[in-house]
Fold this protein.
Amino acid sequence: VGGRGYHALDAESVKAYAAGIEEIAGRLGTSDPGALRAREVGDGNLNLVFIVEGPASAVVVKQALPYVRLVGDSWPLPLKRAYFEWNALVRQAAVQPERLPALHHFDPVNALIVMEYLSPHVILRKELTAGKRFKHLAEHVGVFLAETLFRSSDFFMDTAKKKADVALFADNVALCAISENLVFTEPYFDAPLNRWTTPQLDGLALALRADRAVKVGAQEMLYRFTTKSEALLHGDLHTGSIMVTAKDTRIIDPEFAFYGPMGFDIGALLANLYLSYFAQEGHAETPDGRFAQGEWLLETAESIWSVFAESFARLWREERNGILFSRRLFEDVGDEVGATVGMHQFLQAVFCDVVGFAGAKMVRRLVGLAHVEDMESIADPDRRAVCEARALLMGRELLVNRGVFGDIFGLSCLARSIL
Ligand code: ADP
Ligand code: MG
Ligand code: MG
Ligand code: MG
């Protein structure tokens, strides 16, 4: 991927590029670059994203840059991440095509993916901040999580194929390293790129570095992140990786994909809902103006877990054809209970991971390098710091006490008690 022949595109050259690929030209309705319009819309931290419009339709062209866009060319990043993103998209599309943009083209030399232009879809994060609600979100995302995680696990997948796939994605070293460093490590020491709302949060941010319990918790979660090859993860499933309309939900941007613990994707998403929950008050126009939105966010987190667990249980019963919990040990000898007990124990362990990963993901968005728009868009620093301090408290609590939350409702109770 990348190497000789790679050219970073711009809003002009992307037109000739798109028009030059027969299949894409066909979709756009012209092979004349002059008949196309293009603009760069990437708002992410890493890549270029172009919308190219022709007389018949529009496509999105996403291209990796050889460095981190957020930081610049002083921080190189392998172009091969486009290959991992494409491979993850292909695997997710085999299971849940309705939750992804349609995939049109992959160009390994240019580290570039051409896909459906999602419209009128918008990024979920911004909508949550604006106080919008989406009634199908939890159902769509909960099923997506169960389907993609179960079907890439040893409960389902052919073991030779799974091991080969673990090996393929194990090479996504650079993007895993970003998570290993930015999520689990840097927030807890004096790393140069850390930042927070200062001076308001100085006390809390500095206290983390002397907080043995939270550091031990973060390291335990890092251990799980690096060693537990349970399922193919999206790897970056925050509310900026979900595009929505009132009726539809699509998941984009799985360039961080690798075989890791199921709880990481679920925890990442819940963390972002809880961050939004604590940010609401910073956007409220009247004192209780965002109360209902906050409650809806907690209910959504609850439903995502419930839908995930229910869908997972159905898959466990109906499609458990892999090496794990073989039917020969359970159902085939009349032990339905044994299979069910095993499933409940497994889901309880996933839930424990969800809690810990959610905690780590919250903390890092408050005192690490990359922050969330939900908080950043609260203009008044005093007001923002109040919201952030609450979120930080919850994140710490989830990391330290991740084993004591019996169920998802315990997390909602914790959030309410802090607000
Ligand atoms: P990055 O990896 O740099 O974060 P993303 O894949 O998240 O890139 O895309 C960045 C932005 O581009 C998204 O936030 C969204 O606004 C837009 N975008 C990406 N893919 C699509 C798509 N298929 N349709 C419409 N907009 C998209
Ligand atoms: Mg993104
Ligand atoms: Mg399906
Ligand atoms: Mg990305």
